[in-house]
Amino acid sequence: MAATLKALDRNTTKRSELRTLRETEEGLPAVLYGKDRKSAPVQVDALEFIKVYRQVGKNGVIELNFEGQGTYPVMVYDMQVDPIKNHVLHVDFYSVDLNKEVEAEVPVHLTGEAVGSKEGGVVQQMLHEILVKAKPNDFPDSIDIDISELNVGDAVQAGDLPKGDKYEILLDAEEPIASIVPPTEEPAEDEEEADEVAEEPPADQEQTGDETTKTE
Predict the structure, then answer these.
(1) Which of 82, 104, 158, 209 has the fewest CB atoms within 10 Å around its CB?
(2) Domains identified in the chain, total number
(3) pLDDT of 180-200, one tens digit each?
């Protein structure tokens, strides 16, 4: 279910004024665009945006409400986040038609403990997100796959992912998603000690240039 977020037209895009908006911790600069509409700078409340974004999820639909101008269904296309303060700095809203399919990245979650893990194998996940096509309201929050039956050497491919009636996975069926790889073998301690002894020169020898001379 979509959540509503109030928005205002933003008449300026100067860097100094964008910075001022961010420093208030209330006004969050954003941009609204879509396939059939021109890009327009907008502003939303920062705290309200975080609340709504957590509610609908990564690919959820937000109803962007402009007072006196109407409401537009949008998805969050991109977000700029301050890496130090972890604050949202800017948001890209993509205007969508609820009756037309769009593409978006959906997280892949591995569930269960693989048999191979219990035997010392290591779970290696190659893809954490996959491209999916669906109508805006039909995107799954994530695509989960149970790996509990996998042994060492087994792998999960895109064709093994659960199918949905309302979405299409845009990935080759043989694309690897995750695998259980054998544990890395470490050399035995006695072998390591033997190698170290072999590398040390005898006490009665001196190494000079490319020649070894015996001391008297």
Answers:
(1) 209
(2) 2
(3) 999 876 655 655 555 555 565
